[in-house]
Amino acid sequence: CHGMTATCPAPFNLAAHVLAAAAQTPDKIALEILRASGAERWSYARLQAAVRGTGTGLAALGLAPGARVLLRLGNSVDFPIAFLGAIAAGLVPVPTSTALTAPEITAMARDLAPALVIAAEGVAQPDHPAPVLTLDRLRAMRDLPPCDYVMGSPDRPGYIVFTSGSGGHPRAVVHAHRAIWARRMMWDGWYHLRPDDRMLHAGAFNWTYTMGTGLMDPWAIGATALVVEPGAPLSLLMRRHDATIFAAVPGVYRQLLADGKARDLPRLRHALSAGEKLPDATRAAWRAATGVEIYEALGMSECS
């Protein structure tokens, strides 16, 4: 489906693949960050320029190829730009939850041995000798000349994520660049994703569910990703900004149903659930309220 082949192309770079639509539809909106007062819009051309400029800035720091970059960033556009910028430059980003405490992130950094930490103000940082890149310095990189994508084996490390710890202790899981290629089987198999879709995901960026389903997969097919700013009215913005696919965990569906907000969503084609088991009662109540289905998947951080 969608011209898929059995094996990932080589040489390959995950960020180049994710942002390939910038060449075909440069002016199309890749990302909308939704607020009660309006939306911040990023075209594919603008997003790619920011990512490749960030790649240039990170490369200028002289980090070794494949060096690990610990991300301590919240739900802002800085997150995907830093994540894809590092990958574009041949580095290995490691997204982490902003909810982690200083002792927790210190323990993780001890095992990870990052060469750089990119941190937003107010987010706990590890007690670690790696230099810290502030948000101001990161944002200044966006306007630098574009880096060349560092191409290489699709099997080489692309990014690292930590499991949620449901197995007892969070573990670092290395994903190859080809992980993004493998995800293509979900475009038809789970999402029924199309280039004209507007995918709204309700989760935090550091999570593989959000990063893959909410950002990278829509961009890889040339669709539009919608992100709601924390605290903004989710159902209202879903309706106002014409979300066609909505992705969340079961708890979000339960909350929208309890608030009586799950209605009047004429553009919504269907919804997606993962992260925990979706109760049959929630699925039935959502169908009754909205007229659309929730399609469920089970995934682990270990298999993206």
Kindly describe this structure.
The chain is of the alpha/beta class and 304 residues long. The chain contains 12 helices and 13 strands. The strands form 3 sheets. It has a 7-stranded mixed sheet. The protein has a 4-stranded parallel sheet with strand order 4-3-5-6. Helix 3 packs across helix 4 (78-88) and helix 11 (250-258) packs across helix 12 (280-290). The longest helix is centred in the first third of the chain and has 16 residues, at 44-59. It is globular and about 55 Å long. It starts with 13 loop residues before the first helix and ends in an 8-residue tail after the last strand. The model has no long low-confidence stretch (mean pLDDT 94).
Helix and strand succession?
Answer: HHEEHEHEHEEHEEHHEHEHEHEHE
Number of strands: 13
CA radius of gyration is 19 Å
Output the strand order for the largest sheet. 2-1-10-9-11-12-13
Shape: globular
Unreliable stretches covering 5 or more consecutive residues: none
- How many helices in DSSP terms? 12
What is the beta-strand fraction?
A: 15-25%
Provide the residue-averaged pLDDT.
94
Q: What kind of sheet is the major sheet?
A: 7 strands, mixed
Distance between the termini: 20 Å
Structural class: alpha/beta
Helix content: 25-40%
